[in-house]
Design a protein that fits this description.
two-stranded antiparallel ribbon, alpha+beta, about 20% strand, about 150 residues, Homing Intron 3 (I-Ppo) Encoded Endonuclease, Chain A
Length: about 150
């Protein structure tokens, strides 16, 4: 739990721009490179959305992350925030198409991540063409589905 003084709250509220129609409270002060607001208390800098939760809703439960239900990183409206587990936060980020890996359409070698060239294993995707090339360069016999015997993902 943060030690937030009344002067910190007043300073915090001066840095909020309330947007009508969306009800987002956009952080108008400094932000991290990720787009999340940055707010200093004492000699430390915190994520502004987490500070907002603590000011208006109370302590963030131990081990939880604060998710933006509106998907706007600079929003600090506590009505748009929700404490969730890291797993749930990651799931929501992927479902919204905001996770960096879900935006990639091609593997690092330039092969497309499409239905015929993508293999999923433990929640990650792999390029079948790259695996086939790798297996061939090592002299492994390639099965019909493109993977060497005993070395599937």
């Amino acid at each position: 739990m943060l030690q937030i003084s009344p002067s910190d709250v007043a300073r915090f509220e001066k840095k909020i721009e309330r947007i009508p129609f969306t009800d987002c409270w956009i952080w108008s002060a400094s932000c991290f490179s990720t787009g999340y607001g940055a707010f200093g208390i004492g000699r430390k800098v915190f994520n502004a959305h987490r500070v907002s939760w603590e000011i208006y809703r109370g302590p963030i439960p131990e081990g939880l992350h604060v998710d933006h239900k509106c998907s706007i990183h600079s929003c600090v409206n506590p009505a748009h925030l929700e404490p969730v587990t890291q797993h749930e936060n990651n799931r929501r980020t992927s479902a919204r198409g905001r996770h960096g890996m879900t935006k990639k359409t091609h593997c690092p070698s330039g092969h497309p991540y499409d239905e015929s060239n993508t293999r999923w294993y433990q929640g990650r995707r792999f390029c079948i063409e790259c695996k086939t090339i790798s297996d061939r360069s090592r002299g492994k016999k390639i099965k019909k589905h493109g993977f060497a015997k005993g070395l599937s993902f």
